[in-house]
Every structure is written in C-alpha cells, then in structure tokens.
C-alpha cells in the first residue's frame, strides 16, 4: 500500500486544515500540488478523483475523499495513535463535529463573503460582511469559554479547521485582543505548535501576499 496522497495547494485554508492534522498525527504522506489558478483541479484525471473539483482531496489506498473536515476525521480515525484529536466518546465527538460544521457553514462562508464584498458596488456590503464576521468571532469566543481549546482542554481537529480559516481572516478583519481575548490568546498559542509554520504559516503567508497583490491592482 502506497502513502496517502493529499492533493491541494497550501494557500487554501481547507488544505492547511488537513496539513495541520497530518502533521499532528505524524502521517507519512505525499503532497501533490494542484494549482487552481491553472485549472489543474478541472482536468479529466482530477475530476475522476473528485467530481466536485475541490481541494483538498485525499487519495488513500486507491480511494478518494474530499472536504477537509471529512479528510481530517478520517485520517485521525485511521492513522492516529489515539483518538484525542477526534474522540470516540459520542458526546465529545458531537462537540468536535459541531465546531467542524460551524467552520464549514458559518466561518468559512463569512470569510468568502467578506472577500466578495470588497468587489461589491454596494457601499454597505463591506460593513455588513464585517459585522457578520465579528458575530462569528463572538461565537468562537463563547465556544472557547474557560477552556484552552475549542472543544475542551486538549487539541482536536476542530482547532485545526478553525485555525486555518481564522489565521487567514484576521489579516483582513482583525480580532482585536480587547474584544476577543480568548481567541487572540488561542491563536497565539496555536502558532507555537512545532508543525505550525510548515503546515499553516508558509501557505498563509503565500495567500496573504497574493490577496494583497490582487487588491492593489
Ligand atoms: N468545504 C470544503 C471547501 C473546499 C474548497 O472550496 N476549496 C477551494 C479552495 S480554498 C476550492 O477547491 N476551490 C476550487 C473549486 O471549488 O473549484 C473543504 O473544507 O474542503
């Protein structure tokens, strides 16, 4: 059996979420670069793996899975030495799942809506998008509560999913320390993970530079 293959580009927050999981569990994987700017996700070969043409896509033992949340939970269930990142306990697992769905259905769409609002002709669009982002930050602040991480006092795949997106968003819609002390503190602790730079920091830097370049054109 060959190594699992992660298809993607590390500028993508969803790809970085999976890379964080892969590094956290010490997965021996291959990374195949898919450049969406060059439409490499729309080739016949890639569409056979993932007809939805999204990155990340995982190929493991000849089978493909996509969506970062599904990939991360699969990788932990199959390859991690224990279940701490995605607990088998049903209640704990449901909490992790809720945070993953929050990232997928609230946080990430609001980030993309903010990006779209920058190109809108409606003068209110950006303000509205910012307000909905601040509401999402407020939810996150409450999710952490008195814990260290988003699902309790140990890391889970939900932290990785939220980290990849939030570390991108705060560059354009800051989560000020005074208003959001818990997520600010969490973010700064997450950047100290030994695999942070390789799994999230490098790709994040690339995408920030790319977005800044595009918006100055
Ligand atoms: N919810 C999906 C989002 C994946 C996604 O939309 N990825 C973007 C890059 S950030 C993509 O593949 N865009 C190209 C396309 O949809 O054709 C996940 O978590 O994997």
From TrEMBL:
It holds the Pfam family GST_C. GO terms for molecular function: glutathione transferase activity. Residues 2-83 form the GST N-terminal domain. SUPFAM superfamilies: GST C-terminal domain-like, Thioredoxin-like. GO terms for biological process: glutathione metabolic process. Residues 89-214 form the GST C-terminal domain. Homodimer. Belongs to the GST superfamily. PANTHER family: FI01423P-RELATED, GLUTATHIONE S TRANSFERASE D10, ISOFORM A-RELATED. This is Uncharacterized protein. It comes from Hermetia illucens.
């Amino acid at each position: 059996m060959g190594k699992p293959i992660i298809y993607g580009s590390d500028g993508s927050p969803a790809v970085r979420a999976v890379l964080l999981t892969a590094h956290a569990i010490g997965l021996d994987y291959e990374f195949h670069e898919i450049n969406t700017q060059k439409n490499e996700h729309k080739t016949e070969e890639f569409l056979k793996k993932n007809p939805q043409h999204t990155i990340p896509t995982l190929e493991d033992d000849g089978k493909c899975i996509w969506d970062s949340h599904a990939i991360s939970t699969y990788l932990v269930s199959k390859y991690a030495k224990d279940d701490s990142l995605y607990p088998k306990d049903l209640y704990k697992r449901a909490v992790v799942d809720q945070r993953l769905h929050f990232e997928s259905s609230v946080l990430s769409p609001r980030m993309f809506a903010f990006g779209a609002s920058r190109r809108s002709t409606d003068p209110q669009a950006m303000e509205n998008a910012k307000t909905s982002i601040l509401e999402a930050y407020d939810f996150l602040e409450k999710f952490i509560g008195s814990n260290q991480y988003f699902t309790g006092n140990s890391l889970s795949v939900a932290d990785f999913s939220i980290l990849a997106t939030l570390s991108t968003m705060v560059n354009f819609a800051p989560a000020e320390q005074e208003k959001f002390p818990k997520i600010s503190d969490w973010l700064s602790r997450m950047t100290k993970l030994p695999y942070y730079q390789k799994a999230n920091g490098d790709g994040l830097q690339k995408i920030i530079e790319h977005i800044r370049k595009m918006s100055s054109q």
